[in-house]
Amino acid sequence: MSQPRQSRALVIVNTNFCSSDGDVVFGTRKGAKREAEKLSRILSRLNYKVKLMHNKTAKEIEDLYQQERCREHGEYFVSIISSHGEEGVVFGCDAGPVKLTRIFQILSSEKCPVLTKIPKIFFIQREHALAGKEPWKYALTLI
């Protein structure tokens, strides 16, 4: 008798943000790395195969979701992104924007038939990148 396929989780945490010329763009997200590592351990204990990625550019984030389209999945797919962002957007560590709708599109039933009948759970934690905003107002978006 074969074992059931293991559910997958992709955890992306960006803590340091620099422009292409090396200038620091947004503040460092202290504590985010530790939180992501704790979440990864919890998901592992729940028998998820976890891929934890640190400080990914906007293109690398999109590429990670493109790669997930080709993978074998179990009963669920969980995605956690912890980064700076704005309404409907998260930023890569290069300060490049990634529209959340783009991620959802990559994993849609049309583009990714293998995930058609598998629930996809997204947790987006984004700190508002612009100074003067109230970060607590924008802290967590559940989709």
Automatic annotation (TrEMBL):
Pfam families: Peptidase_C14. Residues 5-125 form the Caspase family p20 domain. SMART domains: CASc. It comes from the Eukaryota. GO terms for biological process: apoptotic process; positive regulation of neuron apoptotic process; proteolysis. One of its GO terms (molecular function) is cysteine-type endopeptidase activity. One of its GO terms (cellular component) is cytoplasm. Belongs to the peptidase C14A family. This is Caspase family p20 domain-containing protein. The lineage of its organism: Eukaryota, Metazoa, Chordata, Craniata, Vertebrata.
